[in-house]
Design goal:
Layout (H helix, E strand, L loop, with lengths): L2 H4 L10 H4 L9 H6 L1 H4 L29 E5 L3 H12 L3 E6 L9 E4 L10 E4 L5 E2 L4 H7 L14 E3 L3 E4 L7 E3 L12 H17 L2 H15 L3 H6 L6 H4 L7 H16 L8 H15 L9 E4 L3 H15 L3 E4 L2 E8 L2 E8 L5 E5 L2 E4 L3 H4 L5 H6 L10 E3 L2 E7 L9 E4 L6 E5 L8 H4 L7 E7 L18 H16 L12 E6 L3 E4 L4 E4 L3 E3 L18 E3 L13 H19 L18 H12 L10
Parallel strand pairs: 1-2, 1-14, 2-10, 7-17, 14-24
Antiparallel strand pairs: 3-4, 5-9, 6-9, 7-8, 11-12, 12-13, 15-23, 16-19, 16-20, 17-18, 18-19, 21-22
Helix pairs in contact: 5-18
Length: 618
């Protein structure tokens, strides 16, 4: 059993903060543990390291004459901030080195120069933030970030998503999950109900009965598969093959194969790991039933991400003594005596220096972590070379700023048949903000924020993939693909005069020399067999730990939840290496229904015997 696995509970910590109340398990508060004698042990270092032992901070100070052990966190995204949070609360002196901006892919940022008359600049983001109900680690962190007026800190800035539209093109009715089906929903809207029922009937009718039965069977097979089969068999089988999409109808391929992979996890269905796609489908199904959730089926923030989450987080961490060095790119790990002694960093002016620490957490994206794997580093841990076999795809955001709030668009829209697998949220339906008063030039009434998940399939306007379109062509193509879905029944939803302006994630830039875009912030995706190439949080280098959405986690997907979980795993691995008696960081597992345990045990026996799952008969 690995270090990270030892700190998982079967379904959740015995008494997570949300369920045990402010006193936590056994009536001992988290704050008391962190500021009392137990936290003092967090400074105890491994014998024989040659490093001075220190004492953790207590009541905002340090023990006289002793310095807290130092930790350099390399990267200020979700995993780096999570690791810094947990280690700072346990008395370590943490410095975070970040090349670009704190918050990583989750951050929001202003469109500079767009605010006039005392208003803020228009808000933009790498991609809109979506929090499924099965996220447990992220909400736990949020509860521990104080916000004035919020009893549960940043967690109170999450709101339940009240409506989602699954939009089809070709004149087909959309499916709407309206407020009447959401927690605290409103009254019955007959027009919405009529369109939803019509859409459901059309979707069911579009799929032959045999294909519906096939998908139900495949889902049941996955639900009843043992962990051994999931890792040993389904990890190595593409989702396309698992659901037997070859030769099926166009709707089966669009809904079951393409949308569930490209639309939800930004990976192509013919290379996506069945283990990952199946686990996400299972998690959504169970959270829809209210099992293993922290809140509603899906949640969103009530303001731009930095306003609602990242800025309060950074303020809290600064208050815990965390230092942030932004604009510092980590170029190399400098090793000595079988350990990492320092890192070489370079600033925007090209000035290089070495930064030493006792412990190091590499929380950089996988494509950037690869650059640190020198021959000296790989000699200490050859397994890290497997990182080069991990795969990235693109999932980036585009914001359309609108003169009016459009009718016929809900809080969230999935454009199921769009070649670029577009999803969007209408921010006025979510944010506690008045756009004309708060942002821009006073003429922007709303923001339609998109995630574009497929950059390799030709579009409908220019016949080119997004990677081959200029930034302006990307915007025009996305607008056209949305209209193709929303206006296919003759209703005007997005008239062109509605559009005020647009903003594409600056991570995507046009390279005229190659006639294609380049992306500074790709996303690691779970392809078949990728688990074997992903590292544990603890490496063979005694004072180096890994965090990031590519590190092995229970959630097993490149998400905020996975990144947060990996930061927790790195903190726990570091505490183990130190030999600290401090409280370990709680880590939540995806919920597994105990009612299926018997079938899974039977499946484990059948898998070891080389036999298929009991239900794998279609």
């Amino acid at each position: 059993m690995t270090t990270s696995q030892r700190h998982y509970a079967d379904a959740r910590p015995a008494a997570p903060p949300s369920e045990a109340g402010p006193g936590g398990a056994n009536g001992i508060s988290r704050r008391r543990i962190l500021s009392g004698t137990a936290a003092a042990g967090a400074a105890t270092l491994l014998p024989g390291t040659g490093l001075l032992p220190g004492t953790a901070r207590a009541a905002g100070g340090r023990a006289a004459g002793r310095a807290a052990p130092t930790v350099a966190v390399l990267g200020g995204g979700m995993s780096g901030l999570a690791a810094a949070h947990e280690l700072a609360e346990r008395g370590f002196a943490v410095t975070v080195f970040e090349r670009k901006a704190l918050g990583g892919k989750a951050r929001s940022f202003p469109v500079e120069g767009t605010g006039t008359g005392g208003r803020q600049d228009l808000p933009a983001e790498h991609g809109f933030r979506f929090f499924p109900g099965f996220y447990r680690n992220v909400p736990d962190t949020m509860r521990r970030i104080p916000v004035a007026g919020n009893a549960a800190g940043v967690r109170d800035n999450l709101i339940d998503l009240a409506s989602t539209r699954i939009s089809r093109n070709g004149g087909r009715s959309d499916i709407i999950v309206p407020q009447i089906f959401a927690p605290g929903g409103g009254g019955l809207d007959l027009d919405v109900l009529r369109e939803t029922l019509t859409g459901l009937v059309e979707q069911v009718a579009a799929l032959p009965a045999a294909e519906l039965a096939l998908f139900v069977n495949r889902f049941i097979v996955y639900l009843t598969s043992s962990d051994e089969r999931r890792l040993g068999q389904w990890e190595h089988l593409p989702w396309w093959e698992y659901v037997r999409a070859e030769g099926r109808s166009g709707d089966y391929k669009a809904i079951v194969a393409r949308f569930l992979t490209r639309g939800l996890v930004a990976v192509k269905e013919k290379v996506a790991s069945t283990r990952t796609v199946g686990a996400m489908g299972e998690a959504f199904l169970l959270s829809g039933l209210g099992l293993g959730t922290d809140g509603g089926l899906a949640r969103m923030l009530n303001a731009p991400t930095n306003e609602a989450w990242i800025d309060p987080w950074v303020r809290y961490l600064r208050g815990r003594g965390v230092r942030f060095e932004v604009g510092q790119t980590v170029e190399a790990l400098e090793t000595s005596g079988g350990r990492v002694g320092s890192v070489r960093v370079v600033d925007a002016a090209g000035i290089r220096r070495s930064a030493a620490a006792d412990w190091f957490v590499c929380a950089m994206p996988v494509e950037r972590a690869l650059a640190l794997l020198s021959a000296d580093v790989l000699a200490l841990d050859p397994a890290l070379e497997k990182l080069k076999d991990l795969h990235t795809e693109w999932m980036n955001g585009l914001q359309f700023y609108l003169r009016r709030s459009p009718r016929g668009i809900d809080q969230e829209v999935n454009f199921m048949d769009s070649p670029w697998q577009i999803t969007a949220v209408l921010q006025s339906r979510l944010w506690k903000r008045e756009f004309p008063r708060d942002y821009g030039d006073g003429h922007v009434a709303d923001c339609l924020s998109l995630d574009v998940s497929d950059w390799d399939t030709p579009g409908i306007l220019y016949g080119k993939p997004a990677k081959k379109c200029t930034r302006a062509e990307v915007a025009k193509e996305c607008w056209a693909q949305m209209k193709d879905h929303l206006e296919d029944t003759g209703t005007s939803v997005l008239p062109d005069d509605l559009l005020h302006s647009w903003f594409l994630d600056p991570a995507v830039q046009w390279d005229a020399s190659s006639g294609a875009n380049v992306n500074d912030e790709p996303l690691m995706v779970n392809t078949v067999g990728s688990w074997a190439n992903r590292p544990e949080a603890r490496t063979r280098i005694p004072n180096l730990f890994m965090a990031g959405d590519y590190v092995r986690t229970n959630v097993d997907l490149a998400t905020m939840e996975g990144a947060n979980e990996s930061g927790r795993a790195a903190a726990n691995a570091l505490l183990d290496a130190v030999g600290s008696p401090a409280e370990r960081v709680p880590m939540w597992r995806l919920y597994q229904p105990p009612e299926l345990n018997g079938l899974k045990e039977l499946d484990a026996q059948r898998y070891r015997a080389g036999r298929p799952n009991l239900f794998d008969t279609v």
